[in-house]
Design a protein that fits this description.
This protein is α+β, with helices and mostly antiparallel strands. It has a single domain, classed as Glutaredoxin. The chain contains 4 helices and 4 strands. The protein has helices at 17-28, 49-57, 80-86, 94-104; strands at 2-9, 37-42, 64-68, 74-77.
């Protein structure tokens, strides 16, 4: 298994807040060493590798993770806690996962 993290640099050159938060969570959860490669989606450079990967996988949120299995199949995770639970065998509470989904989808709301 090979895990690529795609993080974003905003058009003004500042780092993505959510990307920094997820990077800190990776450290806190003790799974940072499972990330094999970090790629940048630089809004100032349409040809950046991270933006190319986002286009290829139809992703418009950052950060996201591409997990390549032994069979070469790629699975994309846009929610950190799903990656943690399904791939890294870590523990994430349902509340943490819901908060992450809500952060990534501000148009959603609970009924």
């Amino acid at each position: 298994m090979y895990i690529t993290m795609v993080k974003k640099i905003l058009a003004d050159g500042s780092p993505c807040r959510k990307c920094a938060d997820v990077k800190a969570r990776l450290r806190r959860d003790g799974v940072e060493n499972h990330i094999n490669r970090v790629v940048t989606a630089d809004e100032r450079d349409p040809a950046s590798e991270g933006l190319a990967l986002a286009r290829r996988h139809g992703v418009d949120l950052a950060p996201f993770f591409i997990v390549t299995g032994e069979d070469g199949r790629e699975t994309v995770y846009t929610v950190y806690f799903r990656l943690l639970r399904e791939v890294l065998q870590g523990r994430a509470s349902a509340q943490e996962e819901i908060a992450d989904i809500m952060d990534n989808n501000p148009d959603l709301d609970f009924l």
